[in-house]
Amino acid sequence: MRDFRYRRAADVADALALLEAEPEARPLGGGTNLVDLMKTGAERPALLVDLRDLPLDRIEPTAEGGLRIGATVTNSDLAAHPQVRLHFPALAQAVLAGASGQLRNMATVGGNLLQRTRCGYFTSAAAPCNKRVPGSGCAALTGEHRNHAVLGASPHCVAVHPSDMAVALAAFDAVVTYETPHGPGELPLAAFYLPVGSTPQRETALPPGALITGVVLPPAPVAATSRYRKVRERASYAFAIGSLAAALDVRDGVVREVRLAFGAVASRPWRARRAEQALTGGPAGATAFAAAADAELAAARPLPHNGYKLPLLRDLVVGVLTGLAEEAAR
After folding, report:
1. What is the pTM (predicted TM-score) of this model?
2. Which of these, 254, 255, 270, 260, lies nearest to 227 by C-alpha position?
3. Which of 87, 203, 49, 108 is nearest to 95 (CA)?
4. Nearest alpha carbon to residue 230 among 98, 116, 322, 118
5. What whole-number distance in Å separates Cα of residue 68 and Cα of residue 61?
6. What is the pLDDT along the chain (330 residues), one digit of tens a residue?
7. 119 exposure class (CB count in 10 Å sphere: 0-12, 13-18, 19+)
């Protein structure tokens, strides 16, 4: 591990000044991802800027009826918050599925959004990785890629984003807010994560030196009837091999509104807009749910050893939406 300096920021302005003064600085929330990457050498910051004293640890209603979630809110507090559980249950379920209790007590919302891939080639200095060393190649293409991307990948990188929380946020059109030395800004989550393309080392559209201050969830009545389901290789804490955040509004057997986002299938949370479009205004039934999943997955390009994800995702869509439709019919 590289030697590094440590500073605890007093406020947002202090944090921004520290990050601006040191190009190789990294913001530190709970450290549950960054510290691991420092141990492997995948991250080599010269300075850690501790954000835990910043006044960004609240969850508050917005004037429009949504929620504003501070960047330093812990995952445990997010999952337990009554308004999150009531109005966005899939988000609470995603957070609870995302880690052990000890990690959730430390991990923060901002850090969760910025966590790096868990691809073994990214964390190993012995293997080529375009995300870690641009231009070195992608070892996963011909190596171990069972848990890698089937959607939106490129010849330069097939790693997947590991966050469960971000999948639910994508389904509900979350907006990421941030501060820079030049003023505040915001990015819809749909634009926050960059397509992998030929520059997999560039993961987000955050301006240089920007600091995430929170996430805003716009009002979404459909989100009150939502669910997050995660498939993993063991029942205990593990990263997903496929996941789904879904919300459904059914009236008289007709889909009025639906939200779908996949996890563990791309370099970013994958909003299944083709499937949503195929379902909206049509019948709520297993046949329609399966057809919509197939429409979304038609763009998939699986590798030799991860094609199993396509029937897995199809079954997730059918199973979760069928459950939600049955709940609506009661």
Report:
1. 0.96
2. 260
3. 108
4. 98
5. 6
6. 789 999 999 999 999 999 999 989 999 999 999 999 999 999 999 999 999 999 999 999 999 999 999 999 999 999 999 999 999 999 999 999 988 889 999 999 999 999 999 999 999 989 999 999 999 999 999 999 999 999 999 999 999 999 999 999 999 999 999 999 999 999 999 999 999 999 999 999 999 889 999 999 999 999 999 999 999 998 878 899 999 999 999 999 999 999 999 999 999 999 999 999 999 999 999 999 999 999 999 999 999 999 999 999 999 999 999 999 998 877
7. buried
